[in-house]
Amino acid sequence: MLQSVDSTEADKGPIYENTLPLIYFYIIYIFIGSFFLLNFFIGVLFLEYAKAQREETKGYTAAHINWISI
To answer: How far apart are CA 26 and CA 1, in angstroms?
Structure first.
């Protein structure tokens, strides 16, 4: 991030804090990216848990499942 903020045109040297709006881009990108990955991970865990729960109760009647929950 620090090197891209100091960037200028092609074949020109860096200038200290030349493009400050890039800082906001990086901060937003990191927050959105981390939230997306966290939500994706939790979603996959939830789907796998639901699938395992369906497999576990396969073949049981409602009365069996009620008895197990007690």
So the answer is: 7
What's the full length of the chain, in residues?
70
Cβ neighbours, 10 Å, residue 14: 13
Express each pLDDT in 43-70 by its tens digit.
999 999 999 988 887 888 888 878 877 7
CA angle at residue 50 from 45 to 55, to 5 degrees? 125
d(CA 7, CA 21) in angstroms, rounded, equals 12
For 2, the token pair is 């620090």
Parse the chain into domains and list their residue ranges.
Answer: 2-69
68 half-sphere exposure, CB direction, 13 A CA radius: 9
Kindly state the helix (H) or strand (E) to which residue 41 belongs, with its residue range. Answer: helix 21-56
pTM, two decimal places: 0.52
As a whole number of angstroms, the distance between CA 7 and CA 19 comes to 7
